[in-house]
């Protein structure tokens, strides 16, 4: 903003406006900065400990730090074993005060994952979110959810009903089939 | 000897003159805060000057200014002077006059005739040294300032005494025979050392929200820890406050999510800002207490000297005082409910009840029967709702009656008529509001 050398009271008003607007810009920029700084920290952490958790491979989008993808391995002794599932993270600007939006890009037959959209029903991604969670720990929570499905709050009713009716075998064969169909890494 | 003005060297930690200092070594005495430039007529800082801009009259000695002290010297010298000059012999006038000149030069213009008479200055520095080394009392010996600062170039040959080594700060600044000063210095030194150590320990600690080191944040305001009252997880004060004040996502419970520690989910009711991180429970308690004491001295902006009302009531950390300095006194109204639970009554508004009650079906009853019966009102207590039902004018009174009855039941108070009156007034407001 330009400040003209005019009568004194006018000058003061202009200055007040300038100060006010720059403050607003600053606070908005600050929030943006905070989420960016935190994501950058997480990025460095991921780079440093790449080999720490072989089940999770977290990659940041080249041009946008608010978009991440992750490849997670299906936990052993579950129908998802040997499958590799792709997750898409969309991080809000208010991160870490607000949870990232996560969905499965790979088809998965799981009571708490929407079969079509890949949306995940997990309390820590909704009302139990806390800023102490990181993208890495969210991935770990999703792996835990795959190992321990919660059929009482299903997003995939078919799979939930199978589990609730006690047809463990039916559920497992369905889940294994979809894992084989969609989540098997291409050989060669 | 006048001891009314606090010695600035003493206030910074060590005065080499000890008990022979012209200035007071008592913390209760006021410091000299008079701007010397203002005395001369011009202070370029103007109103921003951190020293006091008062005119010190030369004819009437003022209690708080050191110019008054120097004036006293010039008047009744050397009767008021210290015993040191008497003991040292030689030319005591020259010695003190030099000091006087040094301290008074800033107060008075150099062309002041009163000071022109004194022109007896010591020949050389060695002159002073040789004179002072003959002093009888060891407590009055002057300490070497070079040694106190770390290293004296004269070494063994120095005419001043070299102080003992202070174990905490590692400087030769303990006078061998001034016991009070030694203790004072040791205390200050220990305190400073503890603070520094705590600061060093805190350097490495990271905030769990922004994942950065708290004390390495870019701005000074951010370089503070926010301690939670109930658990020991470290955060920046800005991060934890942002999180606690962020708007809850739908379905999020404020107490179990936002007000809880992000890591252990333990509910804490307040955040304490602190520059250092604590190592023990006692240290934390000390930080919390000093924070509370500080807030106690600040007037609550909600209370506004009795003109406003503070939502925190008696639990508020800030001061609730009226304009005349009187503190607020509160009698809490305890209401005993039927089931033996005691609640503290604050401002009770009818809308609180209307939100929790569901009345709409009973409003319909009233419409059909034209009159409210106690049976309807009693059942209204259990399941009923004020929906989007359009209130008509003739219904208003009956709803008011119903609500009055309901409130009477809730409050277990026998004054039916009053409540109905209040209820009618509030209902009127409520309906217009809708």
From TrEMBL, chain A:
Superkingdom of origin: Eukaryota
Active site (catalytic residues): 121
Domain UBC core: 34-184
UniProt cross-references to CDD domains, sorted A to Z: UBCc_ScPEX4-like
InterPro entries: Ub_conjugating_enzyme, UBC, UBQ-conjugating_AS, UBQ-conjugating_enzyme/RWD
A GO MF label: ubiquitin conjugating enzyme activity
EC code(s) of this entry: 2.3.2.23
Main EC class the enzyme belongs to: transferase
Keyword Disulfide bond: no
Any Pfam family: UQ_con
UniProt entry keywords in alphabetical sequence: ATP-binding, Nucleotide-binding, Peroxisome biogenesis, Transferase, Ubl conjugation pathway
GO biological process, one term: peroxisome organization
Family that this chain belongs to: Belongs to the ubiquitin-conjugating enzyme family.
PANTHER family: UBIQUITIN-CONJUGATING ENZYME E2
Name of this chain's protein: E2 ubiquitin-conjugating enzyme
Automatic annotation (TrEMBL), chain B:
This protein's name: RING-type E3 ubiquitin transferase
All residue ranges annotated as the C3H1-type domain in the record: 1-28, 29-56, 138-165, 294-323
Domain RING-type span(s) in chain numbering: 207-265
Pfam family, one: zf-CCCH_2
Record's keyword annotation contains Transferase: yes
Zinc finger (C3H1-type): 1-28, 29-56, 138-165, 294-323
InterPro entries linked: MKRN-like (IPR045072), Znf-CCCH_4 (IPR041367), Znf_C3HC4_RING-type (IPR018957), Znf_CCCH (IPR000571), Znf_CCCH_sf (IPR036855), Znf_RING (IPR001841), Znf_RING/FYVE/PHD (IPR013083), Znf_RING_CS (IPR017907)
Keywords for the protein's UniProt record, in alphabetical order: Metal-binding, Repeat, Transferase, Zinc, Zinc-finger
PANTHER family: IP09428P-RELATED, MAKORIN-RELATED
One GO term (biological process): protein polyubiquitination
One Gene Ontology term of the molecular function aspect: ubiquitin protein ligase activity
Zinc-finger listed as a keyword: yes
